[in-house]
Amino acid sequence: MKLTSDAVRAIAPVPPKTEIVVFDDDLPGFGVRARLSGWKVFIVQYSIGNRQRRISLGSVDEVNVDQARQMAKEILTAARMGE
Questions:
Q1: CB 62 within 8 Å of CB 68
Q2: What pLDDT, on a 0 to 100 scale, did the predictor assign at position 66?
Q3: Cα dist. 7→2, 46, 77, 79 in Å?
Q4: What are the CA-CA distances from residue 9 to residues 4, 13, 33, 51, 80 (Å)?
Q5: What's the rounded mean pLDDT across residues 45-59?
Q6: Which of 64, 23, 66, 19 is nearest to 46 (CA)?
Q7: Is the separation of the CB atoms in 75 and 44 below 8 Å?
Q8: Mean local confidence (pLDDT), 69-80
């Protein structure tokens, strides 16, 4: 799914799950983590060697999708460059 404002609002875990992560189809590694309580945060996930990293980019209430996507691109580019 392409993450848009409407898509992000619709993301919610279905009980018995208490948390889900949904990734964007256009930018691999960029996603949203949503909890049953209604809390949602943008994330970026990448690997360095055998280790996976997941960074929070900010709450969906504080950061819009376009800002989060741009931050994720910058982080993913830096990770690919070895920073």
A1: no
A2: 96
A3: 8, 22, 25, 27
A4: 9, 12, 12, 31, 30
A5: 93
A6: 23
A7: yes
A8: 95
Give residue 74's region: left, alpha or beta (phi > 0; psi -120 to 50). Answer: alpha
As given in the structure block, the two tokens for residue 5 are: 């404002």
30 φ, ψ (degrees, to nearest 5): -95, 130
CA atoms within 13 A on the CB side of 41: 12
Rounded CA separation 78/19 (Å): 28
Report residue 9 as tokens. 């609002």
Q: Rounded CA gap, 74 and 8, in Å?
A: 21
Is the pLDDT reported for residue 83 higher than 90? no
**Mean confidence (pLDDT) of the chain:** 94
- pTM greater than 0.85: yes
Look at residue 64 in the predicted model and tell me its pLDDT: 95
